[in-house]
Amino acid sequence: MDTVLIVDDERFFLTVLGDFVIERLQMQPLLAQDGPTALSLLEKQPVDLVLLDIIMPEMDGLEVLRKIKDRSPSLPVIMVTASDCLDHAISALCEGADDFVRKPVDFDELQLCVTRTLTRMRVAKLPPQPPPGPGWERRKAPRVCLGGEPPAHAQLKQLKDVSLIDLSRSGALVEHTEPVRTGEIYCLSFSVGGSQVQVLARAVRAYASHFVTPAGGERQLVFRTGMEFVGVEKAAADLIAAHVEHLLKEPGRGMGDGIR
Question: Less Cβ around it within 10 Å: N or C end of the chain?
Fold first, then answer.
């Protein structure tokens, strides 16, 4: 049975989350009320996922997150925050957190978040796919790396005028004329099934696609960027999932090369 380490200074919330892990996730909970205890437990036994509160006395969640990622970079960590301000969550994502949820916790949203995170980690461990053939390469525009390491104190950026090219439950392929940096977190707004949704997403790959010339304007370079969702409200996640299922059921319709 997979094990989830839950770290929160509120004893009642620890108990509630422990019951949630057993009943909804069918996983084994491991409870810690502070950062040092959590780090000690990680030294003693294997853990598959960490649910980590951000605001705690003495050692806060961001410091615990840094120590966890220093020791086990691939261990998935979902942050839990009671703050209405996104600054803490964005800082956590830039420090390596895989996702976040807000208090009071919507347990349907948390279950979706855990499932999405664990699926992403399992897919990352699959053997690499063979490189595409030369014919495929000729049909694609050359890719130009625009990225680098994300800045230490990245701020949330709104990526404007986004056109949706491909969509999955865990991410999207988008077109835009505004340059991005891989590794940074962006707020995306796009239409799905006639409804507007907003998500937080990390740019994971970016390349120059083609040029366009708007009427009466200057020639502009269009970029394509693969975005990995790291913060999706439950209503938006449900809408995206339903839209993806609808597309997959259409005869002869397949998803493109978006993020899976």
Answer: N
Q: Which two tokens stand for residue 233?
A: 């409200």
Which runs of E-coded beta strand occur in 54-194?
77-81, 99-102, 157-158, 163-167, 171-176, 185-192
Same domain membership, residue 71 and residue 97: yes
Q: Which residues of 79-107 are buried (b: 16+ CB within 10 A; e: fewer)?
A: bbbeeeebebbbbbbbbebbbbbbbebee
Segment (H or E) for 51:
strand 49-53
Contact 258, 171 (CB under 8 A): yes
Structural domain count, the chain: 2
Compute the distance between CA of residue 105 and CA of residue 81 in angstroms, rounded to an integer.
9
Among 124, 158, 184, identify where a domain stops: 124
Predicted pLDDT of residue 7: 97
Residue 68 confidence (pLDDT) above 80:
yes
**Do 39 and 11 meet the contact criterion of CB atoms below 8 Å apart?**
no
**120 lies in the same domain as 22:** yes
Cα separation of 81 and 83, whole Å? 5
Confidence at residue 139, expressed as pLDDT on a 0 to 100 scale: 37
